Amino acid sequence: MVRKYIFGEPVETGAAVNDCMTARELPSYLQTGIADDKITLTYQFEDDEAVYGLGEQVRGINKRGFSYISNATDDPVHTENKHSLYCAHNFIILAGKNTGLFVDYPGVVKFDAGETKSTQLVITAGKDCVIYLIEADSLKAVVKQFRELVGQSYIPPKWAFGYQQSRWSYENEDAVRNVIRRHHGNNIPLEAVYLDIDYMEGFKNFTVNKDSFPDLKEFTDELKKEGVHLVPIIDAGVKVEDGYETYEEGVAGNYFCKDEDGDDFVGAAWPGKVMFPDFINADAREWFGGKYRWLINQGIDGFWNDMNEPAIFYSAKNLKNTFDKVSEMKNMNLDIGAFFYLRDTVNALSNNPDDYKSFYHTINGKRVRHDLVHNLYGYNMTRAASEAFDKIVPEQRILLFSRSSYIGMHRYGGIWTGDNNSWWSHLLLSIQQMPSLNMCGMLYSGSDIGGFGCDATEDLLMRWLEFGIFTPLMRNHAAIGTRQQEVYQFDRLDDFKNIIRTRYSLIPYIYSEFMKSVLDNEMYFRPLAFDYPDDKFAVRTEDQLMVGDSIMIAPVYTQNGAGRYVYLPEDMLMVHITSPCERKFTLMKKGHHYIEIALNELVIFIKKNHVLPMAVLDDDVKTTRDIEGAAYEWLGYVDDTAEYVLYDDDGISKEYTPKEQWKKYTFAKEDFREGYIYKEK
Ligand code: MIG
Question: Looking at domain 2-150, what is its CATH homologous superfamily?
């Protein structure tokens, strides 16, 4: 049951798309207080009650014990002391009550989930907001009802489930060709190569550097023959430069955010001085979205939207103030206090809260200060692109994902989790973020595999890929200046190849489970707590996930880890996979186990009387095109009967297969007489 509570005069965020009952008073277990423009909801936890949700955030799956602040921020150091990352996913679940709360407020929202006082949750938002309350009879049902409220998640093309390689920055055509050659030349599948900011001319959106990419159309045609897609980045800020078309159109059309005086607000990002399109304004959205057309005409069919918190390196005004302060100190003898003051002053140039209070949007003719709607910015940038794609290529799916988002954006694109590091702790973080993202509708998601910042090591990349096999977005990405981390930079190329090939062999399952999750508003990644809520060990498991209907995974995420402890909530078939055709089966009993898992091994656990389809791959599979029509092997331990519903479609049009046509496979014990594999004839 979903109910909606309206406080004050909320800004329309567009997050919810389906109607529900409006009610007056929140249930008594949520104490409401309104003071100083803020609303607070206070909830007393049941003893060891877990809380879930909040999408992209720091820390574990169970969010209890810390505070999380929805305040989209470009902070590339995702350590556990931080309270905000790039997104605002204000949906939280109280497990003890099977109750979900969605705080639909586009400014800063704080979820103090037992940090200040371990026994209580305190949510603080602006007083003009809508709160949705979802009461159901299971955690899964809470999520499903929430997802029905906010609408169906974004569906990428099927090729976006292939392996993708990125780096800031592949500088020219030959660099891209080299990445492809070193994958495909070694029979390592590769589906897409990313272009980071350097493909542009002077970091100007919708331009291409002619020296490094002389003819983009010709180049995308060339890559298409190899089945490889080129995915350019688009940044939120538009360079201030006379003669630059996008800039001039933006000024002429009044499409940029304004400062207090009604002039275009000037900040800085990669291009130097930039202006920020007013994505929250429908006209500006339509204009900016239309700009993607040019790239689509060049054969581009995938984009990633960056810097859309929005990240502001500095604002013109703040820069001036800073110089004034700094110059005052020029001839001073800096004592320690003055030194720190100087340093903090300079550091406060970027993403300064005062800057976010100093510019404005025009929403339905009304001027709205940015900080009050801050968390809607990235969402609407991605919405702008998606709505434009619907006009430019109405029949075709386009790959699109964003760094910043709010709930609602999940209908328009996926997300990646931003600038993580090549740290083992960030591999674990990424495992823990995925189910939380799924709760909030962000299904097409993934993290930078191998880590963005810092130098990746071979073993970290290997383990990360072994988890990345299961993330819908499987992209290796790294920052400029870090060690190169394409798989061919390391010695164990065959092992990497086997892992990536295993991904391709699992794509029929991954795609099927992903699509069913989207179309049925379910979760593709689930914490064990959602499937086994009455199992006291399962509910405390923070480093294993259910993936789709058939399997559980328990990735290794420690340096030198030659295995790990795994909890099995029921009897399962354990499969060690070293390549798509080298698999070792062990029947496992419910309970705690230590499992050895060599560096080149992937382990999955298939639930009893469930099956897992694996496509039989040719030796030279290079892209998802090459697995169409492949025969399946079905892995499983069936001591009764098993059924699998396989979703498939053409992968590119928007004609999704209706439910009646989902293919049902049934298996009997006898099908698996000879072991754990049933081979399709
Ligand atoms: O300030 O475009 O998260 O993926 O490589 C950094 C350069 C800007 C941040 C993105 C990252 C991307 C990088 N960008």
Answer: glycosyl hydrolase (family 31) (2.60.40.1760)
Question: How many angstroms is it from 283 CA to the middle of ligand 1?
Answer: 27
State the DSSP code for 78. Answer: -
Query: Strand 474-476 to strand 448-449: parallel, antiparallel, or no bridges (unpaired)?
Result: parallel
Q: Domain extents for the chain?
A: 2-150, 318-349
- Mutating to test ligand 1, I would choose from 306, 426, 448 the residue with most ligand atoms within 8 A of its C-beta, which is 306
pTM of the model: 0.98
- Structural element, H or E, at residue 234: strand 229-235
Cβ neighbours, 10 Å, residue 250? 23
Q: In this structure, how many other beta carbons lie within 10 angstroms of the beta carbon of residue 169?
A: 18
Pairing between β-strand 66-70 and β-strand 91-94 as defined by DSSP bridges = unpaired
Residues within 6 Å of ligand 1 by CB = 168, 196-197, 233, 306-307, 403, 418-419, 452, 477
Q: Measured in angstroms, how far is the CA atom of residue 280 from the centroid of ligand 1?
A: 23
DSSP conformation letters of 250-297: HHHTT-B-EETTSSBPEEEETTEEEE-B-TTSHHHHHHHHHTHHHHHH
Question: For residue 196, which amino acid is it?
Answer: D
Give the mutation target among 419, 473, 477, 485 for probing the ligand 1 site: most ligand atoms within 8 A of CB.
419
Residue closest via CA to ligand 1's atom 6 equals 307
pLDDT in tens, 359-406: 999 999 999 999 999 999 999 999 999 999 999 999 999 999 999 999
Ligand 1 centroid distance, CA of 308 (Å):
11
Cα(435)–Cα(69) distance, integer angstroms: 19
SS (H, E, C) 333-381: CCCHHHHHHHHHHHHCCCCCHHHHCCEEEEECCEEEEHHHHHHHHHHHH
Q: How far is CA 252 from CA 261, 264, 353, 426, 556, in A?
A: 17, 11, 28, 44, 54
At residue 545, the 3 state secondary structure works out as: strand
Length of the chain: 681
Per-residue confidence band for 643, with pLDDT thresholds at 50, 70 and 90: very high
DSSP state of 600: T
Please tell me the predicted confidence (pLDDT) of residue 681: 67
Structural tokens at position 304: 């990633």
Pocket test for ligand 1, best of 307, 426, 454 (most atoms within 8 A of CB): 307
CA 220 to ligand 1 centroid distance, Å: 23
Say what the pLDDT of residue 673 is. 87
How far is 514 from 597, CA to CA, in rounded Å?
A: 27
Contact (Cβ atoms closer than 8 angstroms) between residue 276 and residue 267: yes
User: Which atom in ligand 1 lies closest to the alpha carbon of residue 169?
Assistant: 5
CA 190 to ligand 1 center in whole angstroms: 22
